[in-house]
Design brief:
- The structure is a single chain.
- 73% of the residues lie in helices and 7% in strands.
- By secondary structure, the protein is mainly α.
- The chain has a single domain, classed as Porin chaperone SurA, peptide-binding domain (Triger factor/SurA peptide-binding fold), CATH 1.10.4030.
- The chain has a three-stranded antiparallel beta sheet with strand order 2-1-3.
- Helix 2 crosses helix 3 and helix 4 crosses helix 6.
- The longest helix has 27 residues.
Length: 179
């Protein structure tokens, strides 16, 4: 009887661990190599995009929102791939670069309330926006490194897109959220 209980407990532990690893009830939306994208990150990004559409275009239908939810997760996966590739190449974004960009924009807007309205229209806090800018600058820096020998802008874009697609194909990606 003791062996049966121990076996049952071990089986339950293995099963529970399997649920955690596969994402059942997980707080993760996806895993890219050894990094996770949380459901919270994904939802926040999705909310930002929805807010942008509602403010600048129109309210989206449920089917459009489901497709957009998948697109935002794909974008976050690509951003994680870019982040990992940049780290391997020793590329980073100095905080000073982000600070300068934000300070220049604040000076051009010339009104703290207008700056805050700009963030609000995009459903960003200043910290959220800083993170979005870091991703943009990191993407630009990696693209510049990968395409440094290419002069044609269209060819640069195509080469970088192919580079990211190749990295994505080689990456270990697990998606835990379904739409």
């Amino acid at each position: 009887m003791y062996k049966f209980r121990v076996s049952l407990i071990l089986a339950l532990l293995v099963l529970t661990a399997g649920f955690v690893v596969t994402g059942c009830g997980s707080k993760y939306a996806a895993k890219v190599n050894d990094s996770y994208i949380t459901k919270e990150e994904h939802q926040q990004t999705f909310n930002e995009v929805i807010k942008y559409y509602e403010t600048n275009a129109r309210k989206l239908k449920a089917t459009e929102q489901a497709a957009l939810k998948q697109e935002t997760l794909d974008r976050l996966i690509d951003e994680e791939i870019i982040s990992q590739a940049a780290a391997l190449k020793g590329i980073s974004v100095p905080e000073k670069q982000v600070d300068e960009y934000i300070n220049n924009l604040k000076q051009r807007v010339d009104d703290p309330n207008k700056f805050q309205e700009l963030l609000k229209d995009r459903a960003y806090s200043e910290n959220d926006w800083r993170e979005r800018l870091k991703v943009k600058f990191l993407t630009d820096a990696l693209s510049d490194e990968i395409t440094k020998d290419i002069t044609d802008p269209l060819a640069k874009k195509e080469a970088f897109d192919k580079y990211i697609a190749d990295l994505r194909n080689k990456a270990s990606i697990k998606i835990y959220e379904k739409f």
